[in-house]
Specification:
2 domains; 4-stranded antiparallel beta sheet; about 375 residues; alpha/beta; Aspartate Aminotransferase, domain 1; binds pyridoxal-5'-phosphate; Aspartate Aminotransferase, domain 2
Length: about 375
């Protein structure tokens, strides 16, 4: 297996549904890809502009102010208070890190990379690129000998599955038994909505209640794409086990994956401001509060989705049938089969359309029974 053997990019299969939805007289409501639509906050744009004199090579490890901002953010927002700058590393985007982590860890044929059963597809892609074997398994008891890297995603894309402190602690114990790296992709952690996540923060894998006092083998992976509307900046980072962070840094220095200096400055400023994150969350809340009951009124059941950026919906029929019916209402969703073999009857609806378009989708859904 090599990069040449990757399948066609799956989103190409959605094009006919986009064309069908675009024929709706009141226009398309695109809830498919999950690309932020709200403006990048002014203070972050100013920070980027301040840093455009970038004549020197940027630091692969990150500027001191960025590394300190990441450490302070984990302490303030994630309840992880004992990190030092040796535990953190900025990355160029999270997708790139997810895709490259098996490469950067030196994995290859014979190694197993575990990922969730219903999953962001890039975990599997990263495994396949190095010839490792991807394995979909959620229960730590099913994680096998030979697993070298285990991905969890909390809150999950697409299904919003969110791991409790107790579940994370059990995952840590199992990963350590196996000697595997446990990487927790946490980029939707600020978006808790229902159940316990309405009142308590989504825990990080680095939470002291989870780690048993040691960060060995553990990585938390984060992205500013969604919480700060920075998807175009490719602004992300990881934190955790100092040994692994050090190894990744060495590999990255050789490969030249240096986050651009202006982006590093913008990230440090973004991480220091919680107000814009809270304001963005309220926009997503308004959209979610309109869309969820409208989907239910139209005959969909929402599964999981108690946190995160998506509604994971099923009408009990083949996902592509739901895609078609939604397209006839001018609504474009993401098909469940893109997220693995266990989601053939689900569709994913992202909260990333302008509020006025989401309200329009809700009106259309409320006027029909699928
Ligand atoms: C679970 C998950 N991880 C990682 C990413 C990638 O984020 P980034 O924009 O930083 O590449 C996404 C983006 O949608 C995601 O859903």
């Amino acid at each position: 297996m090599s990069v040449h053997d990757l399948a066609d990019y799956p989103w190409d299969a959605v094009v006919p549904y986009r064309e069908r939805a675009a024929q709706h007289p009141q226009g398309l409501v695109d809830l498919s890809v999950g690309s932020p639509v709200d403006p990048t906050p002014e203070l972050i744009r100013r920070a980027l502009a301040e840093a455009t004199d970038a004549h020197a090579y940027p630091q692969t490890v990150g500027t001191p102010s960025l590394r300190e901002a990441i450490v302070a953010w984990y302490a303030r927002r994630r309840g992880v208070e004992d990190l030092t700058t040796d535990n953190v590393l900025p990355t160029i985007g999270s997708k790139e890190l997810v895709a490259l982590l098996p490469t950067l860890l030196g994995l290859g044929e014979g190694d197993i990379v575990v990922h969730p059963r219903v999953a962001y597809p890039t975990y599997e892609v990263g495994a396949r690129v190095v010839g490792a074997t991807p394995l979909a398994a959620d229960d730590p008891a099913e994680w096998p000998e030979g697993a070298k890297l285990i991905w969890i995603n909390t809150p999950g894309n697409p299904d919003g599955r969110t791991w409790t402190v107790e579940e994370l602690a059990a995952a840590v114990v199992r990963a350590r038994e196996l000697g595997a790296v446990l990487a927790s992709d946490e980029c939707y952690a600020e978006l808790g909505w229902d159940g316990r996540w309405a009142s308590e923060p989504v825990p990080s894998i680095l939470d002291p209640r989870v780690t048993g006092g040691s960060r060995a083998n553990l990585l938390s992976v984060y992205s500013l794409s969604k919480q700060s509307n920075l998807a175009g900046y490719r602004a992300a980072f990881l934190a955790g086990c100092a040994r692994i962070v050090g190894d990744l840094l060495t590999a990255r220095k050789h490969l030249g994956l240096m986050p651009p200096a202006p982006v590093q400055h913008a990230m440090a400023v973004a991480l220091g401001d919680d107000e814009h994150v809270a304001a963005q969350k309220e926009l997503y809340r308004e959209r979610r509060d309109a869309l969820r009951p409208a989907l239910e009124a139209a005959g969909f059941r929402i599964d999981g989705s108690e946190a995160g950026l998506y509604l994971w919906a099923t009408a009990g029929e083949d996902a592509w049938a739901s895609m078609g019916r939604l397209a006839d209402l001018g609504i474009l969703a993401g098909p469940g089969p893109f997220y693995g073999a266990h989601s053939g009857k689900h569709v994913r609806l992202a909260l990333t359309a302008p509020t006025e378009r989401v309200l329009e989708a809700a009106r259309r859904l409320q006027s029909v029974t699928l």
